[in-house]
Every structure is written in structure tokens, then in C-alpha cells.
Amino acid sequence: MTRSGDADETSSRWTEAAGSVIVDILQMILQERIRPLRRMIQKGGNSMKKHRKIIAAVLAVVLAGMQCVTAGCGNSALEALRQMEQDSREDRGSEWSDGDGSRSASGTYGPAEEDDEDHDSSGSSSHAEDRVQSTSSGADRADIDDWYVPAEGNGTYGKKTKGFDDFVEDLTLSWYSSDYLSMKECTGGEYEKYGLEKPDPEMKPVTREDFSAEADDDLEELKKLRKFDKDALSREQQVKFTVLERKLENDYVMCSHPEFITWFGGESDVIDSTVTSLSQFVFQDSEDFEDFTKLLDSVPDYLDSLLKMTEENAEKGYFITDEMLQDTLDEIDTVTAQGTDSSIITEFERALDDSTDLTEEQKKTYREKVKDSVIHKLFPAFKDAEKRLKALSGTRDGDSRMCSLKDGDLWYELIIRNAFTMDLDAQDITEICRQGLKKQVAALTKLSGELGDDDLDETIDMDSAEEIMKYLGEHMEDFPKGPDIDYAIEYLDDDEKNDTISAYYVTPSINSYTKKGDNRIYVNPDSNDDPVSLYLTLAHEGLPGHMYQITWSRDESNTFYDYFFSDLAYSEGWAEYASCDAIRKAPMSEEVCRYYELNEEMIYAIDAACDAGFNGLGWSLEDAEKFLEDLGFTQDFSKQMAENGQLLAATAPGTYLPYGAGLLEFLDMYDTCREELGSSFDIVAFNTVLLSGGSRPLDMVQDDVDRWLDAEESSGLQIA
Fold this sequence. Notes:
Blueprint: H1 20-30, H2 50-60, H3 77-92, H4 164-176, H5 180-187, H6 208-225, H7 235-256, H8 270-279, H9 286-315, H10 322-337, H11 343-354, H12 360-391, H13 408-420, H14 426-448, H15 465-473, E1 488-491, E2 503-506, E3 520-523, H16 531-541, H17 546-556, H18 560-564, H19 568-584, H20 590-617, H21 621-629, H22 635-651, H23 657-677, H24 683-691, H25 698-719
Parallel strand pairs: 1-3
Antiparallel strand pairs: 2-3
């Protein structure tokens, strides 16, 4: 975000006068000749993490980070929001805590400043009859803060100072230590090393009562947290305090409203997640083979419990969209059609063959048992889910937009808050994206004059993932050195593929993160059918994206808190920011590299804006088209991108908010520091500031950058 200064005025309208190249660029994007629209998700442990992690997976769809780039105006949208929060803080007095952006349950960011007097980012009023009214305002609107915890204790804290770090670790373990897959992935199976008991190897059934109990637990943990004197804690501890407070508040609301939680469809689809967890199970000793058979046999009861809750929710009108339902049914058909060629069976048999701890007789017994369980227990459970889900078709009391459901606008706002660990709403996001897109339009318009007609035919002359990763690792000069790590790249089998997933990086265990088996990147070959797409995918998931950021952070701090708590906006925003850095260094001409960078930014910004517009503000298709046309995009491009955004919003609500918004926020901080420091800007030092402190809310990252920038400017003045 920019801190001060006037930006140059730029044209926001693209016309044929911008040159034939710009029209060609738009047409090529529409026809997906450049590269398919890339969708990816970081799978930090792909398991069903009992109830809290199921919720996290549902909102991990909002797998996310907020775009806050300045574009043709003074302060960025999020900077304006932060200032309005500060003003609100001063008005409310003691209701707010000091210093680091934490808030009371009633705190909220206001709307962003408008730089166009007649602009309405909620959509065109001419389509009001087709649009669910924006839920961001209105006297009769229920307030999201009414869902939050009782006001008692908000903004006021106790005097306790000792034992905070132990409290954080104990709280973290209380959430995850009873879940087998979570703890196996975290500890690498070395439970005793951390004084933990091995959980039962099963996927535990879920009940509505479990959610109620967890909501009560959240309130109790909030009371314990607020006994500490926040102001007396170190800055690092204050960051953890604020993150935990915000997350406990959000989790309380989620657990209090299980009617909105979905386990089928989208990127949180339990069918896909189950196949992934089982096929990528890590076998470390002979005991793991027995545990795997127990885990596999627990899935039918687990699925049945999720289906029962889904059926109860459907009776109240809460059910997935038709698009999500179709995706799930297709996934079930694809998985079960594999039969004995299922990746669950083939990967298990590969592990058996590699094992030196089992006798041939034991291997034969396990091979038969797992094959029988998959074919005669797991697949029938999947087909039962297919039948029961089909029966619920048409029960959704609303259209494909989240805000069309009763209180759906509030739930969507919670999705946003969970993704950003900040108080933002759909109106804020569309405004942030609008300003980001203005900047991208101006940059691409300028670039069009530098590109020749044949320049976009240029590509990367590398075909294999291994070759690309080697190249990326050799071009990390903009980043501080991390630990020496090894990694493995693997390709997804047919029943592991998902149209919305291009690739993912599996977070390594807490006790080992440098060896080849620790770091695994799974690539969907169907979504990476050209070198540029594969290059960007590997930069996002590997170097300098997720794998680099996570292992770098592990080298700095390696606790259970660091393992389990990841801010979606930071994580995905960093990975996209890193991808943009990487594409600048790709072995292509500078102009073509810049095109691909802008394309990356623009696509995710449009996706995020459409997601928030359709699901949060009730946009019609015409509203989305007008939003894009007002930015200067051609009518045909706006129409097709709006249709694509509408489909994404219906299929995976909230998923792409963090990618687009997080990317723009990181780029805005980068642009601001580079502009203000000029030739003295140190990119490595800047990236060190972004990395230090790990995955955290973006307002806290901004605070860190502001302090660093102030110090750099002061140092420059002293030298001068």
C-alpha cells in the first residue's frame, strides 16, 4: 500500500486506439491460447483434521490474500480502510486495543474511499431488480458482529505476563493432538519426541453437538487468552495474541453456524480430500501399514456422519450449488471408475514393495485387505454419497450466490474475515480489486506499444518440471538465503486430479523439512500443458513460493503454532508475489515477461472481484460486465470474464479472494518501498521483512514494512 504522494493520472479506458496488439492480447486470453487460467491450492497436510480442520478446509477454499495495489490514485484501498479503522478506534476509545491492529468483536473496517464520484462498486443500479441487494449496508440488515462472542472482556486484558508461549503451544495442541492424520503429518509419526500420545488411526465421525462443544471451548480459551497483559508481551507474542484472538472469535462463529458448512463440492470436497489423504499417506514403519487399514475402514462412517449433517442442513434450505453438486458427482464417478487401478491401491502396493520391515506373507495379507476395503467398502460409501446427494438436488433455498441464502451474506463476510484474519467485507474487496485492475490496465496499455505482433508467440524453452525448478533455484537473488533443501516432484493420477487444482505443495513435518521426502510438489499435468504455465505453477508452489517461504520460516521458528497457523491471504499472496518475481527472470524477452506478470495479476484480480461481487454483493452477470467495462475492458472480454467469474463464484465461493488480493497487497508494498527509496531500495532486505514473522495477517505485515521503511528513510537522511 502506498503511504503518501500523488499518483500519475492514467487512462482507464481500453479502446481499439490502444493498438491492435492489446486487442490480440485480450482475444488470446479469452481463447486460452496463452495459458489456461491457473488454479492452485496449497495442501498443508491434506487430511480431514477433525472438526476444526474441516472448517478450516471449508474456508481454506477461501484459500486467500487481499489485493491492495494503488492504481491511479493516492492511497490504496486498504490503506484507506486502515485509516478509517484508526479513526473509528479513536471514536470508540477503550473499546479498541492499542498498537497492532487488533480489534474488539464489534470493530470493523469502513468502506474504501472512492476516487470516482459516480462509481458504485456494488454494481449498476439499472440491474437492481436482478440483483440481491448488497448486504454491506441497510437499516434492516443483520450485522455480522451480532454473531460474534459476547462483548465481555473485549479490548480489556488481564495482568498475566508469564507462561504465554506455553499457553500458545498448549492451545494449539488441544485443537489438533487428538486427530491422527494431523499429528502424523505434523510430527512425522514421532509422537513420543514431543511428549504426545499417538491418536487412534481413524477419521472420526462429526456431529452437530461437536460444533456446539467447540464453540463453548472457544469462549473459554478466549477468556484464558485475555488474562494476559497484551501490552506487556513482546512484539512477537503480541502478533500471536492478536492472531489467536481473531481466530478464536472467527472459529466461535463458524462452530455456532454449522448449517453453512459444506463438505462436498469445491476445493474442500471431501471425496477428493479423502482420496488425496489415502493415496499420499506416508509409510515410515511397519506399524503404519496396520494404521492405514484402520484409517481406510473408518472412512464410510465418517462420510455417513457428514452426509447426515448435509441432509439436516438441506432441510433448512442450506445446500451446495448445482455447480458444486455436479463437480462432486463427476468426482465420484471418476474415482470409482478406476477400480483396482485406484491410486489408493497402487500407491499402497508401491509402499508395500518398498518396505523392508514386512514379510512377504504380511505384504500379501495387507495387499488383499486394502484392495478389498477400497472396492467393497470405500467405493460403495462413495456411491452411497452420490445417491444421497442427488436426492438433495433442488433443496437449496436460493440461487448460486452465497448472499441469496438466509444470512448467507453474513457467512460470506465470515469467509472473508477468516481468509484475511481481518475485518473486511465484500464491498472492501471489490474496491481493492478495482483499484488494482486500474493499475494493471494502465500498465498493459503502455506495454502494448512495446510488443510486436509476433512477440506473444515467444515461450520458455524448458519442458520438464525438474529443469524448470533447477532454473528457478538458480535465480533466487532477490531473496534471503534459506535452508538447503531437497524436494520431489510428482504427478497426480487420474483419480487424484481436480479441474480446479493445478498443483500443490505438501507441508513437511515439524521435525524434518530439508530432505527430498519432506518436500513434495504434486502437479496436475492436465492443467500445465505449456512451459509458461508450468513455470508459474512451480514458482508458486516451489521456489520462491510456498516451499521456499515455509522452509525459510521453519528455519527461523519451528513450533506447533508455526506449523498449524497459516494466514491464507499471506500464504497465497506471497506465492503469487513470488511467481511475479520469478516470471520477470524467465528466459524470455523483458516485454513478454512483463506481459505474463500482468496477466497473472489481472486474472486473479478479476476472479477475486467477481467472487466478492456475486457472493457478497449479489451482482448479476450484467453488474460484473459493467464493473469490468468501467475499468476499460472491451465488451467481449468483460462478458466472457464475467461469465467465468460467475462460474468460479458458484463452484468454489471465496477460493480466489486470497490469491488476487494478497498478491496486490504484496506488490503494493513492494512498489511503495521501491518508489520512496529509489536507488537505495534493497530488494533482499525488503523480502526479509516480508518473511520475518512468518505467515501473519497482512495489516501486521504492513506495520513491519512501515517500520522498516521509516528506518531506511531515516538512515538515508542521516547519510545525506
